[in-house]
Design goal:
Helices cover about 45% and strands about 15% of the residues. It is an alpha/beta fold and about 325 residues long.
Amino acid sequence: MAALGWLTPRRRSATARSVLAGEAAAEAARKTSQQLEPAVTPDSPAAPGGPGAPDEAPFPIEGDDRAAAFFDLDNTVMQGAALFHFGRGLYKRKFFQRSELARFAWQQTWFRLAGVEDPDHMQDVRESALSIVKGHRVSELMSIGEEIYDEYMADRIWPGTRALAQAHLDAGQKVWLVTAAPVETATIIARRLGLTGALGTVAESVGGVYTGRLVGEPLHGPAKAEAVRALAAAEGLELERCAAYSDSHNDIPMLSLVGHPYAINPDSKLRKHARERDWRLRDYRTGRKAAKVGIPAAAGVGALAGGTAAAVALHRRRR
């Protein structure tokens, strides 16, 4: 598969690309949030150790409209990676060729074993992922995303984290997802959960058709912090009064921006960092799953390869 030659020019620094990605995500989030109608969802039970627990002051504060909450998606709000499940759905709909499946499976395996984000390797992963949707209409992927949510995602929402998000909504605050998943996918999930909207990776489209390029870079790591900063400025929020929730040490830049950081189902590095800084922790996994916290997890747009890896396994099983 030939390289697509996308991304912003190499003369831009990584920080500049992060800022561009963050600002694009914030702009897209504000536009889509105005179109969202809150979904009707059942009342969620209070999470053990959730807001208002005896060991901490009541939070969130009722009626504080200068505050908002920012939730990472993968393994924080939802079990597993959104793009893993999205990839399964695309494979089911024959978006992939056999050669692409093998390549994506190898890329995902390499990343999980290495546990690091080599820039050249991550660029190759992003090129592969974007090549899948290049030439497809945004409306087509949105429609498919609705179906995939029902098929693979709806029953993977963590009830405890959902209860935390609902507490912010009940207090009259806005709640945003912040994820490296495409903003279209993230917006579908936010709408289904009755949240305000979503900050996600923005893929370039012209005339409603994906070009195979990104605006800036994937909304991952520092780019998430830039997106939250840009959205807070546009919405008139005070970050010191806001809350952020994540499972990954990659989101420490975002968590460090706000006055109320939470480590949810944290990996080992985030758990250590949170304890050193007396951040609040919540773990909604079973003991067995929590024990696996040290295993490197997929991150960024590379998580899409996880879906194809699962598709390979499904294909082999069927044969």
